[in-house]
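User: Second chain of the day. Same drill as before.
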Amino acid sequence: MLAPTAAVAMTIESGGQVGVGDTTPDYGLDVVGDINSDDCFREAGVQIAGTCASDSRLKHNINSINGSLSRIMQLRPVEYEWNENVAELGGTLRYVPGRQVGLIAQEMQLVFPNLVKEKNGYLSVSYNLELQMAAINAIQELGLNFDLFNASTTASLSLLSQAMQDQNLKIESMQADITTLMNSASTTAFALAQGFASATVRMDSFDSKLLTLDSRLSTLEMNFSDFVASSSALTLTASTTENLARTVLAEMGASIVDGITHFKQLAVESLSVFALTIGQPDKPTGITLYDQITGAPFCMKIVNGQPVTTAGDCSNLTASGGTPQNAVATPTTTDTTASSTPATIDTTASGGTPPSAVATASTTPAIDTTTNTASSTPTVDTTTITTTTASTTTDASSTPTTI
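Assistant: Same format as last time:
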């Protein structure tokens, strides 16, 4: 329904312009007031607004619009003002003052050429339903791209989260290793410090001992120098030396007769000789041994080339004289063993001196024969012991051997 003014309801110009409520219409239809329509508004047959028929049963050759986003992204919406002389150019151009918004036809022609028309030598843009549909499709594509981006981002974030968790586990493992290394280094450093301190104490002790040893060596050198100085002034004759030796031996209970040293009793811990003579032809004697079981003494002698064992101590038997009736001949084959370390007397036959003849006594020396076993400390009671020695060696032991 048109809303006419009170004076003029409708004006039709000679140029065909129609004014409804407008006495000077500038366009084909100028309406002052609201326009109401129950149907579709079209431009050149293309619907642009209103309620337009759209039933699919009324349509054919239907195709989806695609790829609009990239084209929409090429459009440049602008704001502008019309040139004041635009009305002088003729046609339907009219000057409208103030700020306007829209698109530039030349730019629109590059993207949507079908929406650009030429009128009176100038380009015009059809702001119709096609442009609106392109905008809708662009929004759909944008939404799809967002969904794809969101899915990709979600997957990427999931992978990134997993990678960060793995990295955190590695960092925690590295931190644990570092802590272990630091603890180990601390323990090692502490042990090294203790070892260094201990080594320092030992070095101090060693230095002290070196100083003590050096002092002792100095004292020994001084004493030796004094000894050399005093001994250089001492002259001993052969007779003086022999007399000195006889005096020393006499104090030990020994004597030298015809070049033979006589000992009443002699106790040694270890004796090494090349040849050993026990007794003399006119004074034969034996060796006293003690039974390992009973502890009773037995005297072992040589009678007619055979070893003979007699109960009793050899010193008592020698003093009473002769060989007792209860003397027992010992087989020539004798196995001698010692309970701990055997006491051994090795003698050599005439015709050469062996490298070493050794008589050794240990903790419990013994001579074990076929019928008797001797233990404890072997004793030789002799009037005279003749030794022809190459060397005599004395070793420390628990129980000495008495000859």
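Residues 265-402 form one domain.

User: Great, on to the next one.
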